[in-house]
Each structure stands twice: as C-alpha cells, then as structure tokens.
Amino acid sequence: MKEMKDYYEILGVSRDASPEEIKKAFRRLALKYHPDRNPGNKEAEERFKEINEAYACLSDPVKRQQYDQFGTSTFAEGPGFGPFSSTFGDIFEDIFEDFFGVFGGRRAHRPQRGEDLRYNLTINLHEAAFGAEKIIEIPKTEPCADCAGTGSASRRPASCSNCRGTGQIRYQQGFFTISKTCPKCHGKGYVIGDPCKRCKGSGLITRRKAISIKIPAGVETGSKLRLRGEGELGQNGGPPGDLYVYITVEEHPLFKRDGNNIICEIPITFPQAVLGAEIEVPTLEGPAKLRIPPGTSSGTEFILKGKGIQRLHSHSRGNQIVRVYIEVPKKVTPRQRELIEELARLNNEEPQKTFMDKIKNLFSD
Ligand SMILES: [Zn+2]
Ligand SMILES: [Zn+2]
Question: Ligand 1 centroid to 258 CA: how many Å?
C-alpha cells in the first residue's frame, strides 16, 4: 500500500492557504529541490516529485476540493477518480511548462550550462618536454559588478506589473490552468526602467581574464587541457562551461620529435669518424659530451638515455638519438689535397670499386 501524503504539509502551507500562497510555496520548494541543483541527490529528487504532485493537486480548485473532501487515503485508493487520474499527466506537463517556461518552445527559466571555450596555445619543444606555466588571456562574460548582474541602475528593478513578478501568465481553460511566458518581461518577472550604464541593461560584461595554466611535461601537438569552470557563464543558475586549451608544439631547428624520443643529426669530420673523438652535442638541457668510437660510419646512431621528453603523467623520460654523418668539405687546401691523395694511394683500392666487386659476387651464382 502506498504511503499517504499530506499535500499541505509537503508544501508547508495551511489548509486554508490562498492559491497565491500555494504557488509561492511551490516555487520556493521546487527551486530548492530541483534536480539540476541537486545532481545525484535521490532525496531531493523524491522531494521534488512530491512537491510537484502536491502542487498539481492543490493548484487546481476542483482537485483541491476533491482532495479536501475525500482526504489523503481515499484520494490515493478510492474508486471513482478516473477523470482525475487520466488528466494527471496533462497537469504535470502544465506544471513543468509553468516552472521551466517551456510553453511555446521557450525555456527561459531552465538552468543552462555555459558554453565551452577553446584557446589555441603554441609552446616550444623545451616547454613540452619539461612542462611550463603560462598565463593566457581569454574574453569572459561575467555578471556586471555595477548592477550585480540585474542590468538595472537602481538597486532593485521594478517587479513586472503584467505578471506580478512571476514571469508567467496563467489562465484557466476549462479544467486546466495554462501558463505562458509573460510577454512584457519575457519571463524575467521584472522590468528595467533605468538600465545600468556599464552593461547597458544586459547585466553582463565581457572582460579579458588572465588565467594561469600549468602545462604538464610530455604534451604534444593536439594535446588538450581542460580547465573546469573557466568557460562561459551558465544561465539561470546553471554551471559555467569549461575552457579547453589546444596545444601546438613548435618545430625545433635541431630536434625532431618521435614520441618521447628526440632525434638530432650531428656532422663529424672524416678523421673523427676514422680515429674516433669526443664531440659536443646539443641536448634539451644544454651541451653534452658524446664519444665517437674509431671507425664510425655515416648514419650510426648513438643513444643518450633519458635525455628525451618526459612521458605525460610520469617521471620517466624518452631518449635522445644522435645520428652522425660525415661531412665532406666542399673545398680543400693544397696541403689537404696532397694528404688525401696520399691516403688514397696507401689504401690502394677505391671504396667504390670494392663495393662493386661485392655486388658482382652477390649475383655471380
Ligand atoms: Zn550593469
Ligand atoms: Zn511579466
């Protein structure tokens, strides 16, 4: 058996409350327990249903009379209430339309989440590798401070005379109470006689807001950072949107990025390649020493462990890959030429010829 409900008690009004008092109590409670204001709160949801149920009954003179006459228990269980039950859904819709102002397609009073904002931010490879803190400026709409968001220069805007401040016009149509958004105040419930000079009556101003962003180490082009609540302001008490920062990492003149590794190509001389050498190579943290062993060919790769880019949300780092190539001088001095010619004589074989011989062997059988 369903638990019996006292609709007067639910709305917190006396048994002889006027329709205005009932409506006022309903609005106050409905706003308080509205699911949008109490996300995930089952108790509030239950209360909200009760409040609507109570109001659906008590706001209608005929139903209220039936309710008063037959009482809670008879009302819920008793026979002979066919018409009442069948119209219940319609009344519910009416109440919701009234509450949300959706009548005629308008949703003037429904809390709406603010728009998300997008900001494109370009950073350099060093910032991507180690993380950075950046200050960005974004245009934001906020309630006007001069008028506290009311849009009215005088402290309190005048209550709309057409709807007596409710924002809704209600009228009786047969059995039902129909409501629609007040055309004079467009559902706001007040009219502005002297608009605020700063916001021109809109109640909102746009200003540039500086926001500090912490960029985590390891981001790459296409990474998105979400700053909760830094988007546009919500409407009718709705939450603000979010700010999304889209990252672009600039190309670096020396380092190519490959995931969390970075690759750079370093020239070495022919003597360095032949004899070996200790050379200096650039890293993200400045110059570092690299030993080139004797007999190093062009294209040999050396790995500097942990000198790459930090993995996102981790402390480990990728590697730096140094690819060496032998730089052949365009011009040589007569003395250099002499020495190289002597070297060629000493070698007694041309590298190209040896290579061709190898290929011949490859195809001979
Ligand atoms: Zn203002
Ligand atoms: Zn009005």
Answer: 52
